[in-house]
């Protein structure tokens, strides 16, 4: 969720920082327009190689 939207909803800067996992100073700078958000590279999902196996296991034993 966007920090600006959370701020409009009345969230404090500290609460936004905790929710987004960022430092308060970073959130404050972003909200004041002094900084732009960085887009980090999306890592591949580590679970994907095991999805077929898990589906088969759950189909074989739904109580698992």
- What is the end-to-end distance? 34 Å
Counting DSSP H or I runs of 4 or more residues, the number of helices is 4
Give a short account of the largest sheet.
Answer: none
Uncertain ranges: none
Mean pLDDT score: 90
Search tags:
single chain, 64 residues, mainly alpha
Question: What does the secondary structure layout of this molecule look like, with pairings?
Answer:
Blueprint: H1 3-8, H2 13-20, H3 24-31, H4 51-60
Helix pairs in contact: 2-3
How would you describe this protein?
By secondary structure, the chain is an all-alpha fold. The protein has a domain at 1-39. Helix content is 50%, strand content 0%. The protein contains four helices and no strands. The chain has helices at 3-8, 13-20, 24-31, 51-60. α2 (13-20) packs across α3 (24-31). The two termini are 34 Å apart. 6% of the residues are buried. The mean pLDDT is 90.
Q: What would a concise description of this structure say?
A:
With 64 residues, this protein is an all-alpha fold.
């Amino acid at each position: 969720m966007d920090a600006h939207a959370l701020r409009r909803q009345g969230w404090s800067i500290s609460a936004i920082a905790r929710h987004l996992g960022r430092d308060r100073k970073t959130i404050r700078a972003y909200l004041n327009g002094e900084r732009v958000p960085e887009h980090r590279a999306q890592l591949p999902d580590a679970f994907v190689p095991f999805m077929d196996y898990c589906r088969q296991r759950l189909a074989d034993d739904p109580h698992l």
